[in-house]
Design a protein that fits this description.
2 domains, five-stranded mixed sheet, 2 helices, 23% helix, binds dinuclear copper ion
Length: 182
């Protein structure tokens, strides 16, 4: 064997990139290209057709003003406490306030199935992530922004709100609750 025909880490294989691509390679490149275009088109298509985008409205709010609104909301409709966190039962169709802060969600919400509420989400300190478990609804909770979502609970039960955005040492303890009654 000559040095020319041996491949190793030191001796590379001979090059043939300048020769025309073979039939199979052309087919493969064509299929890949069509698939790329299809996947590219699927992104905007799914944005409109997928039905997974919440129809919320977002506005600026001073974090302390949002805190005050949440406190007022708690005072108005409080029905007790759950492990030190106020439990609130707002009337049907009302504006509901949920505050994220290091490291809790407040208050605990008691909602009625089939009734629409406008849920306002914001943070007092830094970026948190509203993750409704096990329904898998995920929304960024950002200080300085009030994100208002129209929500109608479709299922009775107890749902956990977990924090999906790393927010420090107590991140994993940041668990809230929504109770939906029939
Ligand atoms: Cu709040 Cu992680």
């Amino acid at each position: 064997m000559s040095d020319e025909s041996m491949h190793s880490a030191l001796v590379g294989p001979g090059s043939d990139w300048w020769k025309p691509a073979g039939r199979q390679e052309k087919i493969w490149v064509t299929v890949s290209f069509i698939w790329c275009i299809f996947m590219f088109a699927a992104m905007p298509f799914w944005h409109f057709k997928g039905g997974q985008n919440p129809s919320g409205t977002r506005g600026k709010v001073d974090p302390m003003a949002f805190y005050a609104r949440t406190q007022k909301f708690i005072e108005d409709y409080s029905v007790g406490t759950d492990q030190g966190i106020p439990v609130v039962e707002p009337p049907a169709g009302s504006e509901v306030y949920l505050l994220g802060q290091m490291w809790m969600w407040s208050p605990v919400l008691k909602l009625k199935k089939g009734v629409e509420y406008t849920i306002h989400l914001s943070s007092l300190d830094l970026n948190h992530g509203f993750g409704l478990f096990p329904v898998n609804i995920n929304i960024q909770v950002v200080p300085g922004y009030d994100y208002a979502l129209k929500m109608t609970p479709t299922e009775a039960g107890e749902f956990k709100i977990i924090c999906n955005e790393f927010c420090g040492i107590g991140h994993h303890l940041m668990i809230g609750k929504i109770i939906v009654e029939d």
